[in-house]
Write a structure and sequence with these properties.
acetoacetate-CoA ligase activity, EC 6.2.1.16, alpha/beta, 21 helices, single chain, Acetoacetate--CoA ligase, nucleotide-binding, ANL_N_sf, five-stranded parallel beta sheet, seven-stranded mixed beta sheet
């Protein structure tokens, strides 16, 4: 018996959706019949070159020079060499910033908030004016095509302005959030040798003022290639710029440029570098993942306009920092003419409703967040459906980790009934998604609605066979434009090959563990390298977390496999509510809950209490680091963690030496 959908779009919504218009456009242009999304998806992966070319036409991509060919080779991947030799839209030139700045009117472009209560608004005309000014100053600092400009900044309008000014010059942008430690910043930016470093004086978080000045000096000393440092006075108390060598105040960058200066958009090849993003770096120095101009733009236009139904009348919000790929994804919303809403700070300060207060005031239509946030909202008993008016809200997006079935129920019960809840999954590696939402499809509990158009996603068993309704490795069998153009300092591509092609030669293996459902949706069970293997049976950690989250006393948990007597046993660590401690009764309740809703193999051999659970800066729990700690192995790069001190709660636990 098939599951019943928890939400279905109305006939009117389906008819008005951009993806419906795109399907009709293809039927007319290609003289084909595409009756529904499965037919459209199948066509997109069987005709990948024609599909991606149609995206450039439908989304009105402005090429300075048109491509000679869409794809150099359309054959299925046969080896990694073929994959890395693929060239998209060869011969074409374009500029990413030009697309994000194509709107020049007084419509709001960016509305930003921080914890101090400050609200700022920029129109598209004002945004263009400020990008022009900053572009002029960066050019005067010697920034040219291919140079790197980096930002250690809060999620604020200045970060977007700096990125757009950088991209307009054909230079490369890379950013991190200011809560990274000194080593975390240097480990990232030090590898790519930036010419300009833009940093904030401090930021606000959870009711506290965080002063970045001491850290800023340390970072400056360890980035010898930086020619200029620009300091954004983000706090009310200004920083004395004279204390910092070769430093300029951000306000000086906004000075009106000479009257004859016009913002020129540098022509870039389709696969010229645009962004450098970083792997989490919890097992060594972060990998520098380079993303191209054209691939990033095309993928984001497709995901925004077709999969999220974003138009120039939408108000788009995603709770993110500048150190997470969702910031890059969010910013590209300007290319569709939408209004972006930014928030920097704790999503629970001063009240758990702070983001919903903002959503109501700004008429947010697409609200993006993490699965962790939605689960925490439910624990805090926040019910926006009762406390807020959200008539504009049409979609809620969730990523970062699998969204549990119960969180689906919570959204429809306590946030809004008529909303498209899209759990999405992809990653830094592709700066986009493999599976995501669709405004014309039903929503099923626990499922991502569909595989992305043009993304030939399958799930493979250990024999390399495609499977449905069973758990396996997420792979992509065809090339796609937002593949990384390479890793920084990887001239022979060996690191690139090892990262994605060592499991199944010639097939992109993403590292996620999940399944394709009979409804055509996707379930993600966690990272493949965190899969537990007791008795040789593979178990995704998300299956355990989903059950543990239902125990009221538990705030969050982390499960790892411990080597034990020539096998692996499951160990579950739990962080409990304040003033609650782990008793035999609570342990029994946790184990019983897991057993009743999964299988006996999912039940942990040990349940142990910890005061905190380690996470990356972007909020993802780090099973690999915990697994290393309990096996007395070295965790190479704790500076990549938001709370590295939490690892000590797992070290030397006597309980792990016992039956």
């Amino acid at each position: 018996m098939k599951d019943s959908p928890i939400w279905q779009p109305s006939a009117e919504r389906i008819q008005q959706a951009r993806i419906t218009q795109f399907r009709q456009y293809l039927e007319q242009q290609q003289q084909c019949s595409l009756s529904d999304y499965p037919a459209l998806y199948q066509w997109s992966i069987e005709n990948i070159a024609t599909f991606w070319k149609s995206i450039t036409e439908f989304c009105q991509v402005k090429f300075h020079r048109p491509p000679q060919q869409t794809l150099t080779n359309e054959q299925p991947m046969q080896d990694a060499q073929f994959f890395t030799n693929i060239r998209w839209f060869q011969g074409s030139t374009l500029n990413y910033a030009e697309h994000l700045l194509s709107r020049r009117d007084n419509h709001p472009a960016i509305i930003s908030y921080d914890e101090s209560g400050r609200r700022q608004q920029l129109s598209y005309a004002e945004l263009f004016e400020q990008v022009t000014a900053v572009s002029y100053q960066l050019k005067a600092m010697g920034v040219a095509k291919g140079d790197r400009v980096v930002g250690m900044l809060p999620n604020c309008s200045e970060a977007i302005i700096a990125m757009l000014a950088t991209a307009s010059l054909g230079a490369v942008w890379s950013s991190c959030s200011p809560d990274f430690g000194t080593h975390g910043v240097v480990d990232r930016f030090g590898q790519i040798e930036p010419k300009v470093f833009i940093a904030c004086s401090g930021y606000y978080y959870n009711g506290k003022v965080i002063d970045c000045r001491p850290k800023l000096k340390q970072i400056q000393q360890q980035l010898p290639n930086v020619h200029h440092t620009v300091i954004l006075q983000f706090l009310e108390q200004p920083l004395d710029i004279s204390e910092h060598a070769k430093s300029t105040d951000w306000a000086e960058l906004l000075a009106t440029p000479p009257a004859d200066y016009q913002l020129c958009f540098e022509s870039c090849a389709f696969d010229d570098p645009l962004f450098i993003l970083y792997s989490s770096g919890t097992t060594g120095k972060p990998k520098c993942i380079v993303h191209g101009v054209g691939g990033t733009l095309l993928q984001h236009l497709k995901e925004h306009q077709l999969h999220t139904d974003i138009t120039d009348q939408d108000v788009l919000f995603y709770f993110t920092t500048c150190g997470w790929m969702m910031w890059n994804w969010l910013v590209s919303g300007l290319a569709s003419g939408a209004t972006l809403v930014l928030y920097d700070g704790s999503p629970f300060h001063p009240e758990p409703t702070v983001l919903w207060d903002m959503a109501e005031k700004e008429h947010i239509s697409v609200f993006g967040t993490s699965a962790k946030y939605i689960a925490a909202l439910e624990k805090a008993e926040v019910k926006p459906a009762q406390s807020h008016q959200l008539p504009a809200l049409k979609a809620i997006l969730s990523t970062g980790s699998p969204l549990s079935h119960e969180s689906f129920d919570y959204v429809y019960r306590d946030i809004k009934q008529d909303v498209c809840l899209s759990s999405i999954s992809g990653g830094t590696d592709i700066i986009s998604c493999f599976a995501l939402g669709n405004p014309t499809l039903p929503v099923y509990r626990g499922q991502l609605q569909c595989r992305g158009l043009g993304m030939a996603v399958e799930f493979y068993n250990e024999a390399g066979e495609a499977i449905t309704g069973e758990k396996g490795e997420l792979v992509c069998k065809q090339p796609f434009p937002s593949m990384p153009i390479g890793f920084w300092q990887d001239p022979d591509g060996s690191k690139y090959h090892k990262a994605y092609f060592s499991n199944f030669p010639g097939i992109w293996c993403h590292g996620d563990y999940g399944e394709l459902t009979e409804q055509g949706g996707v379930i993600i069970h966690g990272r493949a390298d965190a899969v537990l293997n007791p008795g040789g049976v593979r178990i995704g950690t998300a299956e355990i977390y989903r059950q543990v989250e239902q125990v009221p006393e538990v705030l969050e948990s982390i499960a790892v496999g411990q080597q034990w007597q020539d096998d692996v046993r499951v160990v579950l660590f739990v962080k409990l509510k304040p003033d609650v401690h782990l008793t035999e009764q609570l342990t029994t309740t946790i184990k019983k809950t897991i057993r009743e809703h999964t299988t006996p193999r999912h039940v942990p051999a040990k349940v142990l209490e910890v005061a905190d659970i380690p996470r990356t800066i972007s909020g993802k729990i780090v099973e690999l680091a915990v697994r290393k700690v309990i096996h007395n192995e070295t965790v190479d790069n704790t500076d990549a963690l938001a709370n590295p001190e939490a690892l000590e709660y797992f070290r030397g636990r006597k309980e792990l030496l016992e039956e």
